[in-house]
Amino acid sequence: MTASAKQIGAVAAAGSAVLLMAAFVFQALGYAPCAMCLWQRYPHGVAMGVGLLLLIGLPVLPLLVVGAASAATTAALGLFHTGVERDWWEGPTSCTGSGLDMSNLSGADLLPSATSGPSTLVMCDEVAWEFLTLSMASWNALWSAALAGLWLVALAQQMRNPRSKSPYPAT
């Protein structure tokens, strides 16, 4: 039995949920996210929403396109973030070590010792955690690219056979 395009899309959306949960687990373990890490979370949220919309029976083709675009977007952001961490290119000046744009930082961010709590300033060009020489941003890029591939497989299947026999109503 072959999985339907909706089922493949739902699996890809679940993959985004797993990656998003992993990000929150790392945050709970004390690895505060930088601005670019937070940017990478939003497309996962969109992909999860698309997965839910697939399950309630909305038109499949546009949802698969949005899901694929969401996963590809977070993969691209992860790749860009990896390049910033590895000094392959410049990152946003608001969260990298260049110090050229401090307009978005508060006094507490600039002088962490002036506050009673820990500093919330996390630099985007520093690797906080890595496994097998890959940072969290790199792992997000790889897994998100795989999820984008799943979304594209679902999209190709839907375009090949839009009225396939599946347990869901054809749309």
Provide key terms for this protein:
single chain, 171 residues, mainly alpha, two-stranded antiparallel sheet, 5 helices, 58% helix, disordered C terminus
Q: How would you sum up this structure, described in words?
A:
Strands 1-2 form a two-stranded antiparallel sheet. It is elongated, with a radius of gyration of 19 Å. It contains 5 helices and 2 strands. The chain is mainly α and 171 residues long. 33% of the residues are buried. It is 58% helix and 2% strand. Mean pLDDT is 80; it is low at 165-171.
* Overall geometry: elongated
What is the residue-mean pLDDT, rounded to a whole number? 80
Strand order of the largest sheet: 1-2
By DSSP, the count of extended strands is 2
